[in-house]
């Protein structure tokens, strides 16, 4: 739907689950092509192709202990060493052994590896001892066979994946790079420093939203945060065009309604945007939106309009921006975990209610927090996520509900 008629577009709010699916599909369709990056640069990107082994893993039999690789019956005469990083001479003569280090290649002809702590030496310097029934080496392909898929495309690249790829012989990985995001803060009433007063309030979203975006896998430079943008249509259009020139995603705060100084929708019309989602049947935060703008290079960019009330803005972030970014990174639509409600949570009529909760991970229970008005951030600062209460329902104690987690970097709150 064209942005030329924003009021008509906003007439029918989209169901919350449908809105998530719609923006994810739009992001997936616009995901950039894969690029190969060195392993050292891959952390935080998204795997663009399945990770398969280039060789058996391990590629050759390796000793799992320090000891003696032996051939034939004891006692064994020492005929050399097998050290990591070299190919040992085969053991062909009965009653011979080579000293072997953990991780070293087991020589051809070895019948077993005797642990050094379980060996003894005879008076003439030979080695003796009893082999354990189970082999003390890692067999080729024990972890994976050549060509076996280890991880699917769409998973985030983390240090564990990087190490696994290196062990398989990769020097680089095909990835989808992290999207670049920008933020435009709207509102003449906002202060960027000092204490609020005299009708003006501190901008809480300008400092906070970039941090949330980084946790969702974006890059956001300080220069990509602009505002407060003057409450005029020309200023909004100029700011949008400048941000779209450098970013894959432009988030805006405020101006998502149709008040006398809400210029976002007319500005979107000026830049030729088309709505993906415009208003969502969710409380708080229903006047949220995502629009697509195709650049002169033919590549789509996105604008995510977050409401000006701080908690509503974060609801928009977890509802629309997180699925959109998952799509842009080639990741699947996030599956929501579940928890059991410890206390009742009221419904919001025909709207999905996203209610701030703390999660007791030991019991798997969700506990509503206080101070959860749309303009409040105290409850958000104490919460782990939002419990999802479907339309026409109340959340009852003992009921299992979906939870939209907040992307915390340090795990569980104290």
Automatic annotation (TrEMBL):
Keywords: Magnesium, Metal-binding, Molybdenum, Molybdenum cofactor biosynthesis, Transferase. GO terms for molecular function: metal ion binding; molybdopterin molybdotransferase activity. Residues 182-327 form the MoaB/Mog domain. The keyword Magnesium applies. CDD domains: MoeA. It catalyses: adenylyl-molybdopterin + molybdate = Mo-molybdopterin + AMP + H(+). Its cofactor is Mg(2+). InterPro entries: MoaB/Mog-like_dom_sf, MoaB/Mog_dom, MoeA-like, MoeA_C_domain_IV, MoeA_C_domain_IV_sf, MoeA_linker/N, MoeA_linker/N_sf. This is Molybdopterin molybdenumtransferase. It comes from Micromonospora polyrhachis.
